[in-house]
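Our consortium's second objective concerns turning raw sequence data into structural hypotheses that experimental partners can test. To show how far this objective has progressed, the report includes one record in full. It was chosen at random from the queue rather than selected for favorable results. The single chain below, 278 residues long, was entered without modification.
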Amino acid sequence: MYDGPVLDNHLHLDPVNGRGAAAAADFARAGGTHLNVLNKPSWNLVGDVDDADGFREAFELTVEVTREADEHLDGRAWPVLGVHPALISRLVDRGYDPDGAAELMKTGLDVAAEFVADGPALAIKSGRPHYDVDDAVWDASNDVMRHAFDRAASVGCAVQLHTEDGEEFVDVAEWAESAGLPRERVVKHYSGGYVEGPIPSVIADREALERAAEGEWPFLVETDFIDDPDRPGAVLGPKTVPKRTRWLSEAGYDDALRRAHVETPARVYGVDTVATLG
């Protein structure tokens, strides 16, 4: 049986409205060892944001709850900070034009990059809407994403992307490379097993995981747990990655599990999930 580290690559902990670090304790009791904790959208944590200080407040909340989560783990918890791509639609609804909304979102990414450069954060998150938008919003969103690649390259970190569904993101990987960020440092959050271009972060359902495990490409595993008291367990509960890890090990996929929980985190984020155990 696989007895190495177990990383949930994309999980939210909400210290304002949700369970916060208590959800990380559930993850640890189920056998999880490492977490990448994504900040929830700024409007969920601090309300409407119109400047750098608003983003900084939301990020500080996530850094603190990640520290609290870290105390429950045999491994480590790291914050991944950035701007949810749906913010552009909220800002347009509030009266911003798409370019003005994009500039504010870039400010948020600049603040996130500061948290990486100063030490507490591991990576940046960005992306573009996963729902239909008009051309102006789409173009502005792509501009924001490219800014994330530029900032990540400047501080030497990875970028997790929240985007539309699909497997073909070669152009996005090429944008990252043109900004000086290697494509292996770009992660497609909520992937279905395989992605062309970035590294897939595979949602922990059985079909998607089997596809990734049977391949030879690097991948990560996630729940996208959202820590919403009105939707407990959504998207997947915090115990899911440890449970699916055991299931994959019982099915004989130990090599794939080492790829997901040891080799790919080292490749993407530069972290050693084995050395940080215990």
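The partners drew two points from this record. The beta strands are 7-12, 34-38, 77-82, 123-127, 159-162, 186-191, 199-203, 220-222. The longest helix spans residues 98-118. Both points have been shared with the crystallography group to help prioritize constructs.
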